[in-house]
Amino acid sequence: MIITYYGKQFFKIAQGEMTIAVNPVGKSSKTGITARFGADIALSTTNHPDYSGFDQVAHGGKVPFAISGPGDYEVKGVFVRGAMSESEIGNKKYINSIYSLDLDGTSIVILGAMTGSEIPDGAKEIISEPDILFVPVNAEITDPKTSAKLASAIEPKLIIPMDYDEKSLKTFLKELGEEGAEVEEKLTIKRKDLEGKEGEVVVLKKI
Question: Alpha carbon of 21 to those of 10, 17, 29, 198: distances in Å?
């Protein structure tokens, strides 16, 4: 599995011939982030330009199966479950979807632009000690200390912070005692590499 980070909460997860886009940035976003590739599946946690650019990952003859809300999905052997939570961006409230997916035997949870310190009851049902957790570290959405506590409570093997800046990332890592976390250009990892890990943090550089 190869995980690449483009900024905000925009990731590409590639496993064999399967490519999944997470929260692609839309054309109308003010972030200035651009990336074009073809995805088989595209997940959007929040109906906001920073997280819902499905058109940006339709490329090279590929048009992704777009998932943008709670529910159960199966696409090309990948199982995805989404549960509702809340988000607040720029003083405006949004519905946020927390996703859990199984990709070739690796369980992944994506919290999205979740606001608050508690996982909603409906989402707890789909989260169970995942292998990899994507957690927001954006002080404008959720306090980094709160994000760190959430990550610890979920008990993943590997934690990948997203939507961070230098200050919020520093606070997040300090709270977890992971100031020496590895910083990678991209993450290449196999299922066996996750064995024995407990809450290890990997910071991915923005491409």
Answer: 7, 13, 17, 26
